[in-house]
Amino acid sequence: MRSNGRNDDGLRPLKITTQTNKYAEGSVLIEMGDTKVICTATVEEKVPPFLKGQGKGWVTAEYSMLPRATQSRNQREAARGKLSGRTMEIQRLIGRALRSVVNLQALGERSITLDCDVIQADGGTRTASITGSFVALAFAVNKIALQHRLSVFPITDYLAAISVGIVGDRPLLDLNYEEDSKAKVDMNVVMTGSGEFVELQGTGEERPFSRKELDHLLGLGEKGILELIAAQKEALGPIALKIPAGQPGKEV
Amino acid sequence: MRSNGRNDDGLRPLKITTQTNKYAEGSVLIEMGDTKVICTATVEEKVPPFLKGQGKGWVTAEYSMLPRATQSRNQREAARGKLSGRTMEIQRLIGRALRSVVNLQALGERSITLDCDVIQADGGTRTASITGSFVALAFAVNKIALQHRLSVFPITDYLAAISVGIVGDRPLLDLNYEEDSKAKVDMNVVMTGSGEFVELQGTGEERPFSRKELDHLLGLGEKGILELIAAQKEALGPIALKIPAGQPGKEV
Amino acid sequence: MRSNGRNDDGLRPLKITTQTNKYAEGSVLIEMGDTKVICTATVEEKVPPFLKGQGKGWVTAEYSMLPRATQSRNQREAARGKLSGRTMEIQRLIGRALRSVVNLQALGERSITLDCDVIQADGGTRTASITGSFVALAFAVNKIALQHRLSVFPITDYLAAISVGIVGDRPLLDLNYEEDSKAKVDMNVVMTGSGEFVELQGTGEERPFSRKELDHLLGLGEKGILELIAAQKEALGPIALKIPAGQPGKEV
Amino acid sequence: MRSNGRNDDGLRPLKITTQTNKYAEGSVLIEMGDTKVICTATVEEKVPPFLKGQGKGWVTAEYSMLPRATQSRNQREAARGKLSGRTMEIQRLIGRALRSVVNLQALGERSITLDCDVIQADGGTRTASITGSFVALAFAVNKIALQHRLSVFPITDYLAAISVGIVGDRPLLDLNYEEDSKAKVDMNVVMTGSGEFVELQGTGEERPFSRKELDHLLGLGEKGILELIAAQKEALGPIALKIPAGQPGKEV
Amino acid sequence: MRSNGRNDDGLRPLKITTQTNKYAEGSVLIEMGDTKVICTATVEEKVPPFLKGQGKGWVTAEYSMLPRATQSRNQREAARGKLSGRTMEIQRLIGRALRSVVNLQALGERSITLDCDVIQADGGTRTASITGSFVALAFAVNKIALQHRLSVFPITDYLAAISVGIVGDRPLLDLNYEEDSKAKVDMNVVMTGSGEFVELQGTGEERPFSRKELDHLLGLGEKGILELIAAQKEALGPIALKIPAGQPGKEV
Amino acid sequence: MRSNGRNDDGLRPLKITTQTNKYAEGSVLIEMGDTKVICTATVEEKVPPFLKGQGKGWVTAEYSMLPRATQSRNQREAARGKLSGRTMEIQRLIGRALRSVVNLQALGERSITLDCDVIQADGGTRTASITGSFVALAFAVNKIALQHRLSVFPITDYLAAISVGIVGDRPLLDLNYEEDSKAKVDMNVVMTGSGEFVELQGTGEERPFSRKELDHLLGLGEKGILELIAAQKEALGPIALKIPAGQPGKEV
What NCBIfam families does the annotation carry (chains A, B, C, D, E, F) (predicted)? Predict the structure, then answer.
């Protein structure tokens, strides 16, 4: 049996608390089981140098874990003087995923930074960061839309992410830390509301995996993401209605 | 009038939530008005190189603000690749203050790191970090005491800190950010339960200050710290009884 | 038409030159079209601290591009004082992929570092690095096997990698730089000789992709990898025979 | 008895040599006993980015010790690649203290950097740096005033600093290294010519200190600073007359 | 006997392959025995800040060794986060030497960067870098001359470099690694086509050296450089004719 | 005419003050005209890792300029976070030169660090550092010899250094900053008491130089170094007698 009495295709208890920070344009505390991530969205009326003067906006992300988010304390990256490869990989992933559902032209020449700070980690922090950041991003974009009367709402579809993996021989949805550390195959799936893939990262940690296993894992991921997007809609309330129902196979 | 309808010698609403992290040996969320700091205590069975083999322990602290803890977003120190002077100054202060009420000999050859992560900042983050860290530290020390049956409880007195300052011509207790940014004189006071000073840092930001003004500010600080220590005792519950009532003028 | 008159499922001209460095335990110059990467394998009789005393070995990789490997000159990472996120991501991928076909126990307490230095870049440098590194690794492992009379040959299967992607609406194999920069979907596939996945990284750069498109891309990747592994066998000569024919679904 | 046969309220032999550097706009070698600090003032016709276009000037400080300024050699911070927390704390203190007696508006849009390089250290290097830097600063400001015919002399009062502390039970003025390393309480006092505090930093290194002890220490500090300011006036010669006699309680 | 059956005044087998990189404005692979260096020249239409607006150009160099260019693997400088003193010294030397035969005024406000990447090292990498870079530079300058119709060809003379040294008591030309590591005296000579010195760096590694020994070494160096310049001319083909035959004693 | 009414082959006024630091094992303030360098020698009873257990000692050097040692202020290398190429090159030169006259075997397993801190710079700081460091080194070695009763005095010869150069068409000895910045050719000469070369670094800054010019410059250097060594002997007093009169052409 899995912890919490979950089925193999079950998510952990999920909670999305919004507007947790009085300064940020959007903010969320997302809890998936014991994994807790604060996601804040900051809007700035400027873009990185490589985008200047093109009338387009930018969305980017940063990721960090508090030193004692995990079982034993990790040294701060600020103290070590540099970001680890893992951190860079994760924040590049989050930013890339979020940009895939933002119409940067419609956003106008401004940038939004999503800060994902992991308060407590129990597996799946990068996927929780994506799912939570999407909600914070939507709040921030809505604020811009209200202030600047944009003609098009710049978010083009819902977006959420989940981990799947093979533990022993069982494909499982939403691995916690204990499961993750025993997983033979590990995969992160990022999908849109229209059911298409934005990012797929699978790794045979302990052994390679077959095409059939891949298919099974993708099915689990799809199921989990549908549930996550339902929770996002609830958390967004009226903002949810502004996001178009993406259509499979259509370019956004 | 001050925000919250406070008097000049009033603290902001104070809330200390304990055991907020499932891994840390001690953890606290301290809220003073809109200032919110997570303090976690990590116990490790090793000491820094300069203390090895002396049978003594060590207590140290690290301090950081989430990028959007403030009105506008700050670049992460990990991204910049180094700690700012302000951060170093603050974490040295927190560690030094906490060590002043710990009997390092009684602690044995182990170290405790207090991580102070500011989730939201509205003035007084360094003093809130000290006040909150003391509680997290006491939980962690208690855990050690229970496991290792120490003959002496290694904490020798209570410890709390508060800011005071002169705004316009009015000496005020517990400045929020708006008051702090207008303050002509700014002072941080760290005191023990026995009413003695552990640290005193006063700066004439806009003008120097007289001996008489100093006396007034110290009076305010003393009043505030008594209230903070009362709140610490409540948060600590039975652990509170293990901490000796320090006596003025006695070496600890 | 694609450059070189290739079909959509065709590889670029491939050339693997072995033993290009007189000091390294294994060395390869791999050329895929205009992409050229030097891969050298260094054997050291020591392991990283986290593996000490476990009787197991380690395989890791580093990746770098010469400043003028690309159309315009890039600043050296040594001059900037830190590795980019892209570099870290790539070298983590290469190391992880290679370790998946090495029996670290059989290798014994020694480590092998694969240095992948891109002399000229025209798309697909990370997959060429994996494919070339596998050959350099096999030479180095063979050298160890000869010197230390290992009872088991520590490489458990072949390994190669290729990029696939969707340009316009056409799924293509082995994208060059020009194709890659226009690709709407981009995927790197790492597979073993037994036809199973070791790593799968797909990104919807310009739009999300459907399950059907994914299937198409995986088919292309599989075809390309079979051809790459044939070329590896030829380059390895008699060493090729020492590597077991991996069997799908079996743990290695 | 203290070294040099000093009384508890006595300063060490003090020597201020001016114009020791042929390039700097102001320069001083200050010796307090065996503590020797070179202070140079550099004037530049530019201000930091955050002050641009405001018509105001800036005063800042940097502090460093030669590697063999102390009993055993310290690694250079340039070799370690970063400033220590101690160095940052000290140079922030020196700059803040000096700015408190400079009318930045009257200085005009230019900046003055005080470099404090400790040639030999025997306790009290940060306070000697402040006292010496004030003299170097006054020479530099005078040079500006002569060249640019400023309508107001931008220095508004004298400024000096001294350490006091409690060794055993005796409150002492101007601790040397040996006394400092045994001190139970340690305090740095920065005062103006009008007898008001600019900065007060007291630390209970070995035990907390009472209000009564604080009062005693402040008295010692005040006595020492009066003597230091007298020496500064002598070193400044005619420039001394240009500095207003600050009045207690008045904003400058 | 020396390796390759060389005489004391003989160069190792020399090979200069040109246009080895499809992107760079000039590129060369120089091989001197087992020492192999890739030299690429990059032209950029901008100059460093200190030269802006002066109508002059700039020539600079960077030097690096692949990790396994030597018998044992060296850590990458990018991984260590900083350049070694040796690297800095070498790249300063290469840039300075090349600039001595370039008329920066005639080059116009553009800069040329020579990247010297050592693929395999067997002694004499810095002198091979200079000799090879000169050829890459000439190709790049020729390209500029053709595009911009410069009135004067900006290269003013040929330039090559070679190492000489005393091994045992024998002065030798062009030391390989084994000879270099036993050398008592080690010298690098950089000369122009007109037979004058541009740079001379001699070090008594194991013992000082006399004036007479110096004279002997300079003679060997001169002989070697004449041969190197002959090879450069051949590699340059028609470009060789555009470079003036420098005249001894004349300022260029 | 040159400044100070010097002849072309004249040194600037030279002053060597010894024992300027109360902690260091050897210390010197060397002044050559307006160039002033503090050289301190630190003895430590340990050697760098690469020498451990070989019974040999080590001599090394570090070099730094105070920010305002020059006409305009330079940023501190500690603030920039890394040493410049120029600094590394100079400190490598100083260490290498000093080691050439030290019998590291006779020194025993200990190391001596020479810190050269330039207080004021007016040309020739690296050669002044070598000349001054030799005296500080001799004091430190003498101290070791007295304490440890070494059988052989570990210094094998005198050592001094001077700059020479060609300004206009005139070869000059000991260039000051103004001369140095106009020099067409610039050379640093390091020689032993026995009149042999330890290091020779000549650069054609503005034009190449002929063999005849080289000979002229070497003659000037030799003359200057004889005078410097005479001054070193005077500064060393009785220690001077312990240093063997090196013999030309003999290995030390």
Answer: RNasePH (TIGR01966)
